[in-house]
Write a structure and sequence with these properties.
CATH architecture: 3-Layer(aba) Sandwich
Strand content: 5-15%
CATH class: Alpha Beta
Order of helices and strands: EHHEHHEHHEHEH
Strand order of the largest sheet: 3-2-1-4-5
Radius of gyration: 15 Å
CATH topology: Rossmann fold
Number of domains: 1
């Protein structure tokens, strides 16, 4: 991923999207892989994320793998996740936002809308940046579509709709 940066679109990356880059066997993984290999590789998008994205992605992967999760696999995945996020940052395709700057608003949003605090963090980032939140978790997508009317600064994009363009 080298060359001049020409970002035409910006999105907030939800960890559910990035986790699918390693969970090939799960629903919507092909769309996530296509987004990574086409949109990001072509430098057609720029991503924003909360700075806890790497451990959140690793946590989602560990939870999904269950009994097949072992030390040799964990070593490979942890290294690969770290290398990919580092490269995306280095290439200017990913910008991380410090979690402390989002905590208070995320905590209040989690209480107000009865959503997990971890999901409230990227929601607040999406609102503040005016960039759509890119998701692949269908239940979260449905919930966030309902919030768009009460939170006018929130825009949500379902990844399959984006790459289907």
């Amino acid at each position: 991923m080298t060359g001049s940066v020409d970002h035409s679109e910006q999105y907030v990356l939800h960890p559910s999207v990035a986790a699918k880059w390693w969970l090939y066997h799960t629903p919507n993984a092909p769309e996530a892989s296509r987004f990574l290999s086409e949109s990001l590789a072509a430098r057609a998008v720029r991503l924003l994320a909360v700075d806890d994205i790497e451990p959140r992605v690793l946590g989602e992967i560990a939870a999904e793998l269950g009994p097949s999760f072992d030390v040799p696999l964990a070593e490979l995945i942890a290294e690969d996740v770290h290398l990919l996020f580092s490269e995306l940052e280095r290439e200017g395709l990913l910008r991380l936002t410090a979690q402390p700057s989002l905590i208070r608003d995320a905590f209040l949003g989690a209480a107000q809308y009865q959503i997990p605090f971890a999901d409230a963090l990227p929601i607040v980032l999406a609102e503040r940046s005016a960039a759509p939140l890119l998701v692949l978790d269908e239940a979260l997508y449905q919930l966030l579509q309902g919030l768009e009317t009460s939170r006018p600064g929130l825009k949500v994009t379902w990844l399959p709709d984006l790459i289907g363009r």
